[in-house]
Amino acid sequence: MCAMLLPEPKKAVFGEGTTGRFVGLNLITAKIASPSFDAKEIAEMKLWNYQDLAVRVDEADSLLIDIELSDALPAADGQIDRPELYEKQGFSLRVGSSGVEIAFAHRDGYVNALSTLKQLLVKHDEGGYTLQDADILDWPSIERRSVSNTFAWYAGYGRIGFDMQLWGYDEWIEYLNICSDLKINQFNMCMYGYWPFQFDEYPETMLQGYKMKVWNEESRNWIEIAYTHPNISDEFLSRLFAYGHKLGIDFFAYIGLNSYNGGYPSIYKDKRMVLPKDGKFVNDFDTLCLSRPENIAYLKAAVRRVVQLGFDGIDFEESEESYWFCNCAACAETFMKNRTPAEAKHKANFWLLNTLYTEIKDENPDCVVGVRAWREPPLEKDLAYLEDCKRSIPEDIVLFWAPGLYVSDDEFPKWVDVFGKERIWARDTEANAVASTMGRLMRIFKTNVIRADEETNHQYIEKDIDMHIDSVKHGVKGINGYMFEWYGYFLNLYSHAYYGWGSTKDHETFYRYSVEAVFGAELANDILYVLRRMLTIHESQFNIFPTEFPFLRNKVKAEDIPVIQEAIKEWPELGARIRRIKEAIRGDERLKVYVKHFDKIENSHERNRVIYDLALASISYDLAVTPEDKRTFLREMDRLNELDFDLVKRMYFDVNPVDETGMPSCMYPYHELKRVIHNELDPDNRNDRQVFLGVEAFGWLWL
After folding, report:
1. Residues forming beta bridges with residue 650, ordered by sequence position
2. How far apart (Å, rounded) are the C-alpha atoms in residues 230 and 152?
């Protein structure tokens, strides 16, 4: 019987036998010629969810299984397609009746071998474990397998509480251990907005003492609190880096090139870019004028501080505006003179990138610098454009974005050819990032979305997988998977790990295989049933809702009624399966880490039932003829909107608009829907201050 390993090894043969029962590991280290790491410490770290397994070194015992370690890998033969990655991160793992042999050339290979060994453990009826006979030779197809996580994403601009940015050290360690077990080896810590670290030079830009109202379910009222990021309350980032580095995980700071930097442009509104007098842009809150010396001094100090924290690299994200539109006299002279607006944009951003690059390298020459840039339309670039971009940046800057969505299959190879495959570290695999904008509703598959084929945005897990496969095909340096929301979205993480390693199953086979590998066959049936069949309608999809939401543009209409009614009919079955899953994993020592995921999935499921009725009421309102009927359906929508929000605020911490920028923003549609309904019901007391659907909506209004 073949073990279900995630990700799948390149070469594996499984036997029918097993080892004897054991209650611990005995690491035999005689064949490690020059130890450069503590094998016992790493083994204990990797057994984070097997605390009942002891680890000893060179202590033979009948209740310990011998694991012979060797730092001499078997010779790479012609069947190993990436010998350099085999050397850096590959391993040999043999399990027989008498024990285990692990060979590796470097620490990372040892860590990867232990990640695989864990998955071969089988609980024994008398206590302890056995291992299935196996002969495995494995290595990755991609060197850098990163995930981008929210450390402080749009903090103070859109919301505070993406799930990860509320975590302390223990929660980050749990997540990191899960990622390490899946052979992820880089964390990109996303920091847009107020800084989640100590910054004494500009303390006003720190995410501390941030006033916000949270729901108090005990007395059913709103209370004001002063929120401080956990890493400022009790600094843990340095400990997280130290822990992750031992497991071969690097840490990059993912920040804006000239956007959302530490809340500075929100605090000092006079230092922002100067908009044209006749401009209709709403994003005048995130970008600084580059002609003001104090702004440049701040940006330099900020990136130096980020490097000082110990990050291994920095990834700058260039905003997606099509052209430079700071209209102060100095910027017009420096950047706009004799240039088109698009050319001026690149002139300004290239200058800033090169300026900050110098600061970074002066602080730490080994700090890697990356950029996510050149995403403005048209997405299909000509070669002259790409060659100019290449010439305009230092030759060791790597790319954290290359196209794959919305473009032909011919576009990505152009970027590989121009920049070289070693400089391509990521593509636009943003299915999870898009889902994170949806106010804690679930969106993984196309099947979750009503009339998905008619949508202009197709960032679902299926597209992420296609881009990962293509990245492996072209042999680029790295892949990146966005993980802006973790709870409920474990399948996204599995896809980044599975296809980034180089596994090749088709979509449908992978979904089943990965979930069964983690949860077992019986639970996999229920989990996939729930995730695939949950129909999600975003509250912005009602015709009465005016605010632009780029990721779901379809509005519900009469032709959707049968689909909604079918979802209502199936809703009880989904709920029963969710409860069954939760009961099973809550009692499992290793699966209980997923309870929070299904708490979120259950909350989304409960909201869906209310939103289905909201959608039907919305359609009825659209079709109503008389003012009386319209008011009836408006009142019904108002009632259901409150029920929906009641489920939200009981579950989540951060649910109200943020307006310090001057532009109210909230990723929950409740507030804007309430505003427009009340304007219709009470036109004499209109509220015309629009609540935008999060900062992502602003971004798309730039284009």
Report:
1. none
2. 10
